[in-house]
Amino acid sequence: MKYFEFGKENPTTLLLLHGVDTTWQLSFQPFIEVAAKKYHVIAVAEDGFNTDEPETDAISVIDEAHKITEWLVDRFDGKIDIILGESLGGMIMTEILLDERISVHTAIADGFTILEYPSFRHDLPKRIVATALADIELFAFKHMSLIKKILGEDIDSMIYKETSKKTLS
Fold first, then answer.
1. Which residues, listed in sequence order, are joined to residue 86 by a DSSP beta bridge?
2. 34-51 pLDDT, tens per residue?
3. Running DSSP on this structure, what letter comes out for residue 116?
4. What does the alpha-carbon distance between residue 107 and residue 79 come to, in Å, rounded to a whole number?
């Protein structure tokens, strides 16, 4: 996991957490260029979606949130003005906000679900479902040109296709 900071001279902090199958650059680069004029912007390159560390995998939302929380406590004494969580980033943001050491003025959730995944009594069904969903997504990555024809949009510029099966699972 890496943290990229822009507009450090500005006192108001803005933490950006990107969604699944994207990167901080794909999700926020144009926004950062504008926001850094007013805010101290911190863009998180989450594990499993980091072009600088493609060998890393995400373990869980809770694990990612824990890493970010520890960094915020170390670097900012747990105080941050604004958090923007997009999709998966919104789920991570929710976990960060549960930590009593974190103080946030404004939290913005953009397009994420708070519904829980099914709870399985045994690990095997959970692994089977996770593997199947990961396989479907990896299949879609490999056949992006078909999806582009169906949707009529350049999906390639929106999705980080180097996500590993382990991270997706």
1. 110
2. 999 999 999 999 988 788
3. P
4. 12
Task: State the Cα–Cα distance between residues 66 and 71, nearest whole angstrom.
Answer: 9
Count of other CB atoms within 10 angstroms of residue 112? 19
Structure-token pair, residue 41: 């912007």
Convert the pLDDT of each residue in 136-163 to its tens digit.
Answer: 666 666 666 666 666 666 666 666 666 6
Question: Which token pair is 157?
Answer: 């510029």
Backbone angles phi, psi at 35, to 5 degrees: -65, -30
Residue pointed to by tokens 């994420």? 112
Q: What does DSSP say about strands 40-45 and 2-6: parallel, antiparallel, or unpaired?
A: antiparallel
Query: What DSSP element (H or E) covers 76?
Result: helix 61-76
| Number of residues in the chain | 169
Instruction: Give strand ranges (E) for 48-155.
Output: 79-86, 103-110
**Is the torsion defined by CA of 59, 61, 64, 69 positive or negative?**
negative
Contact assessment for residue 91 and residue 85, using Cβ atoms and an 8 Å cutoff:
yes
pTM of the model: 0.74
Residue with tokens 């747990």, as numbered in its chain:
78
Q: Judge whether 123 and 99 are in contact, CB under 8 Å.
A: no
